[in-house]
Amino acid sequence: MELQQVLSRLESTGIALFAVSYDPVATLKAFAGKHDIAYSLLSDEGSHVIRRLGLINERVQEDHAVYGIKPDPRHTNLPYPGVFVLDESGVIVRKRFHESYRERDGGVTLLAQTMGIEDEAPGPVTRAPGDPARVVAWLSSPAYSFFQRLQLNIEIQLAPGLRVHTPPAPSGIVPVTVRVSEIPGVEVGPIEWAPVRAGFLRGSLPLTFAAAPGGGDLTLRVTVAYQARSESACLPPSSDEIDLFIKEIAMVDRTLPPRPPV
Amino acid sequence: MALPPRNFSSIGPREGTRFPEVVLPDQHGTVVDLHAARRGRRALVVFYRSADW
Lengths: 262, 53
Fold this sequence. Notes:
The structure holds two protein chains of two kinds. Chain A has helices at about 1-10, 25-35, 50, 60-65, 105-115; strands spanning about 15-20, 40-45, 80-85, 90-95, 105, 125-130, 135-140, 145, 150-160, 175-180, 185-190, 190-195, 200-210, 220-225, 240-250. The model of chain A is unreliable at about 100-110, about 110-120 and about 250-260 (pLDDT under 50). Chain A has five helices and 15 strands. In chain A, strands 5, 6, 7, 9, 11, 12 and 13 form a seven-stranded mixed β-sheet that branches. Chain A has a four-stranded mixed β-sheet with strand order 8-15-14-10, with no helix packed on it. In chain A, strands 1-2 form a two-stranded parallel sheet. Chain B is mainly beta. A two-stranded antiparallel sheet of chain B has the order 1-2. The radius of gyration of chain B is 15 Å and the shape is globular. Mean pLDDT of chain B is about 85; it is low at about 1-5. At the A-B interface, strand 1, helix 2, strand 2, helix 3 and helix 4 of A face helix 1 and strand 3 of B. Strand 1 (about 15-20) of chain A pairs parallel with strand 3 of chain B, so a sheet runs across the interface.
C-alpha cells in the first residue's frame, strides 16, 4: 500500500494516520499482516460513519455505467476517496477528495500537497546543464500504477540577479513553458507555478496514468523552454530536455476479482 | 465520455470545523476513538475504497 511508504515520514513529523474503509475487521487484519502495516486501519462495516460524514459516493453506479463497468454490490456505500488533515486540536485544516478511486493520488503526492511538506525529490531527479540557469525535474514517485496521479515538478535555478517569466511574459521575452512528450494513456494536466522567488522558479503539473495496466516502464521527455533576463539584459532563449524514467507497479492488489456466482 | 466536474469541496465536513467524533474498531478489533488516539497530534484521516479489492 502506497501509504506505507510515507508512514515513517509521518511518524517523524508527529502526525497520526488513520485509514477508514468499509471492510470488516478480518479483512483489515489480513491486509495489515500481508503488507506489514503499522498504522490504524479502521473498519466502518456497513459504511455508517462514511454515511454520517456525507462521504458516500452516490454516483459510483452511474459512473460505472458511463465507463461500461457492470453493477456490483461491492460498489454500493463506497466513500469518495480522499483525506482530511486535522490540526492538533482536531480541526479540519484541509481536505482533498477525488472523483473516484480511478484517480488516486500517490501517497507521497498526497502528503506533500496536504501537509505542505517539501518534497525531497523521491522520484528520479535529472538536471539539464545550464549556466547561469539550469532546469531540474523530478516526479513525486519513482513508480506509477494504474490510474494513479503523480506530480511532475520543475525547477529553474537562476544565478543571482536573473529572473524568468511565466506566461504572460513581457513583449519580446520567451515565457516559461513545459512540454511533456506524448505517451498514449498518460494525461498531462496544466502546470501551476509557485510564486516567483529569488533564485528559482518552481512549478508542478499532474500526470494521470490512465492506460490499461501493463503499460510497462516509461520514459517521459520533458522540454522546458524559457528566457532568463536581468534588469539590463536578456539572455538568449533556452530549451532544455530532460528524460525521466518511471517504473510501473504491478496491480497485484488492485485488479477487480471475478464476481461471485449469482 | 468524461462526467461533468463536481464540487469536491462540498463533500463531507467543512474545513475549519472540528472533525466529527469517530469510534471504530481497527485491524486488531480494538475499538479506537480517533480524537483520543491522536493524543494531541496532527492527523491524516484517509478514506479509501477497500483493502480487499
